[in-house]
């Protein structure tokens, strides 16, 4: 569930009444930014706009959500060319300037617009308007569950098939060995054992890559840690190619990568730092003293021991990050890098 008091929210107003409502929101959530039409000549705005469409275009992706206190039609016309993807677009809320209704318009689930509409309605003593099918039918919202638990949605088109089945009260096969999703789905909607067929939808929650029918929704837990050792000056492209090759060869999803770990002697390695940035994962560096605490690794290296005083970088770092028993892929070497993969425990 999204705590919108901690998120970046922009509130847009073109009339005095709308500006008054906007100020009430800011009184409740001081971190909100108020955008007022320059024609209003009213104090309190964090920014003023002369061109609504141009200013919104510049601010669109800078906020987690936008609350427009104006006619829905105006908003629809302006945001039409800004929307990209339901998993990336900010939450969009519309409301009348009398403060009667707060309407969840875009990104109701993953973007949190439904929850934002409810919270704004509570602040303004208004009626939230939620139109997403799973909500009005009191069915589980699989995309919300995935988002709330940090699961990567690998095939977004399958969401509608799962949602429709749940709306109809139909049980679906579910592979979820770590019980990340099952506790949030009514038992009568889970079919076990999980036997997937080409004609039915289902839910697959795992870091392992399998050949699944297209209707099956694939959710990837962020639980894999890549320990990496590399030569000085190795390029980001070489590192990424090797990492992806290892993941593919081992039947692991790169979308489950949660962290990269290495030795602190590589803390200034441009290729390694760029790799973490491009893969959008944090990177952590262990000191040689910390790595030396891991006394047993599958593939100790006398050469590494000679140069930096420890028997392993990639395996030792992966083990340090996850625990000794969680190494699932021992050292895989290329000409310029080594990679080991471990899984973080779920308990």
UniProtKB/TrEMBL annotation:
Domain of life according to the entry: Bacteria
SUPFAM superfamilies according to UniProt: CbiG N-terminal domain-like, CobE/GbiG C-terminal domain-like
CobE/GbiG C-terminal domain span: 224-342
Pfam families assigned to the protein according to its UniProt record, in alphabetical order: CbiG_C, CbiG_N
GO BP annotation list: cobalamin biosynthetic process
Cobalamin synthesis G N-terminal domain mapped to chain residues: 55-135
Protein name as annotated: Cobalamin (Vitamin B12) biosynthesis CbiG protein
Upper classification of the organism: Bacteria, Pseudomonadati, Thermodesulfobacteriota, Desulfobacteria, Desulfobacterales
């Amino acid at each position: 569930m999204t705590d919108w008091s901690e998120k970046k929210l922009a509130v847009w107003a073109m009339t005095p009444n709308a500006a008054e409502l906007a100020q009430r929101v800011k009184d409740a959530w001081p971190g909100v930014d108020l955008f007022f039409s320059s024609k209003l000549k009213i104090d309190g705005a964090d920014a003023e706009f002369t061109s609504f469409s141009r200013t919104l275009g510049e601010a669109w992706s800078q906020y987690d959500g936008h609350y427009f206190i104006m006619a829905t039609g105006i908003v629809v016309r302006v945001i039409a060319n800004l929307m990209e993807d339901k998993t990336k677009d900010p939450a969009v809320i519309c409301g009348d300037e009398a403060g009667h209704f707060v309407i969840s318009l875009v990104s109701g689930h993953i973007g949190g617009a439904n929850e934002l509409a409810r919270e704004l309605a509570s602040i303004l003593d208004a009626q939230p308007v939620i139109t997403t099918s799973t909500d009005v039918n009191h069915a589980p919202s699989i995309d919300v569950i995935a988002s709330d638990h940090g699961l990567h949605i690998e095939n977004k088109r399958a969401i509608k098939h799962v949602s429709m089945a749940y709306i109809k009260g139909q049980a679906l096969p579910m592979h979820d060995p770590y019980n990340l999703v099952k506790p949030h789905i009514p038992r009568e909607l889970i079919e076990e054992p999980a036997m997937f067929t080409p004609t039915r939808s289902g839910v697959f929650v795992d870091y392992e890559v399998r050949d699944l029918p297209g209707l099956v929704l694939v959710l990837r837990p962020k639980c894999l840690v890549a320990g990496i050792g590399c030569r000085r000056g190795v390029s980001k492209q070489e590192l990424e190619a090797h990492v992806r090759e290892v993941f593919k060869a081992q039947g692991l999803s790169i979308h489950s990568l949660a962290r990269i770990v290495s030795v602190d002697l590589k803390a200034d390695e441009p290729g390694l730092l760029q790799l973490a940035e491009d893969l959008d994962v944090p990177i952590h560096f262990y000191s040689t003293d910390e790595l030396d605490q891991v006394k047993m690794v599958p593939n100790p290296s006398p050469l590494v021991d000679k140069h930096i005083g420890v028997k392993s970088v990639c395996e030792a770092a992966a083990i340090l990050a996850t625990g000794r028993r969680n190494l699932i892929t021992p050292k895989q070497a290329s000409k310029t890098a080594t990679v080991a993969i471990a899984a973080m425990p779920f308990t």
